[in-house]
Amino acid sequence: MDLVLGVADYHFFTPYVYPASWPEDSILRQTISLLIVTNLGAYALYFFFATLSYYFVFDHSLMKHPQFLKNQVSREIKYTMWALPWMSLPTVSLFLLEIRGFSKLYDHLGEPPHGWVELAGSVVSFLFFTDMLIYFIHRGLHHRLLYKNIHKPHHIWKVPTPFASHAFHPVDGFVQSLPYHIYPFVFPLHKVVYLTLYVLVNIWTISIHDGDFRVPRALKPFINGSAHHTDHHLFFDYNYGQYFTLWDRIGGSFKNPSAFEGSGPLNYVKKMAEEKCNGSVESNCERDGGRQGASSKAD
To answer: Per the database record, which ranges form the Fatty acid hydroxylase domain (predicted)?
Structure first.
């Protein structure tokens, strides 16, 4: 995060915001700057990628599902807008520790090819380390002592849209993000790789709420995608993983997605439309069926 803060200081904070007498390494100044940068960055990532996903990936026929709530999209957005600033408070404290030199982040790549091998290894270990911790944290949040007050707000959205991706209770959102912050305090990681991964995991969080249930056939046994996570929202006790199905399989919480078995939410919507057609005038049925065929793309 010091890379982002350095750019922000050089181009904005130092020339236009803070007095020249206030040093850039002041802990108070760094805290204020991080709060600004973190919130602006979070909102920008959320609205840019969730909006793209909503308009170009999300199957809008899912909005006809009986468990899709009235005004759900606006409610998801409003909840996220309220929650993100609160999530940023503890997050900034960890970013501050990174900037003050307490992490194992580094910025010099080692001699090739060993430097590149180390870099690739750190990406793989980051993904598996964070996936493992998120699995246990997420499953723990489903415990009856924690669920009602912390995790339940995210499960309001039974058929989520990309805008539900960050609609968490602030404690829930921060706790599930902890593995991303813990990793660079335990393992060496290049600063640019860390920043890139941090952006990508936020995009991934949006993608598993995007209602596009397609997964390449070869990856279906391994990748925890939108089909898996939508079933988690619908059926509660399954598919806690973030990227992979590994820990769900080990922990006995894996459920083959209903979308893969022809009984997912899109199939349900299609069945509803067909039943409605059977009781309607043939011309209306044909028109509705054409619209349904144009919008159904996932299974």
So the answer is: 124-252
